[in-house]
Design brief:
It is built from five helices and four strands. By secondary structure, the protein is mainly alpha-helical. Strands 1-2 form a two-stranded antiparallel ribbon. It has a two-stranded antiparallel ribbon with strand order 3-4. It is elongated and about 50 Å long. The N and C termini lie far apart (59 Å). Belongs to the Cob(I)alamin adenosyltransferase family. GO terms for molecular function: corrinoid adenosyltransferase activity. This is Corrinoid adenosyltransferase. Its EC number is 2.5.1.17.
Amino acid sequence: MKIYTKKGDKGDTQLVGKRVRKTHERVEAYGTIDELNSFIGIALSYLTEEKFSDLKDDLLKIQHELFDLGGDLANVTGNGKWASKEDYVPYLETRIDYLWAEVPPLKQFILPGGEKGSAYLHICRTIARRAERKVIAIDEKETLPPVAIQYLNRLSDFLFAAARVINYRSGREDILYERGKDILE
């Protein structure tokens, strides 16, 4: 079996239930989810030490969930048979609370950076926010899994917390934004 089909050579692709242009907002949304998933894969490649095993487990779980969400975004039938599950969000919230308790409280904004895994998770956070905006635009007009927006919102919070934890566990301090002083109290 060949990897190429030539079916998209004129700029179209197949969603579940409809053929659309590759610029269609759903294709843009699940493409952004795919981009996010790929960057999570890069971040994972830097988390080789045992002290990151819990984060590696979380991120691998998230990669599978993102595939579920991407599949849901490619489904225009609106049949309500979603792969994305409501329990994705409470799990993220539990993990965010656990990770957030591990790091020092924030009093200032921080800059993305530090360890490579952390820096990549900051990129992931911004891609998750972009994906969220794209999903919101679709949700205003079409049926999507009820959990989609909430999941992406919570995921960006998880990625921020995980990025901070990577630096903390590696003995690196957050890079503080210098112009603001104690603005988050």
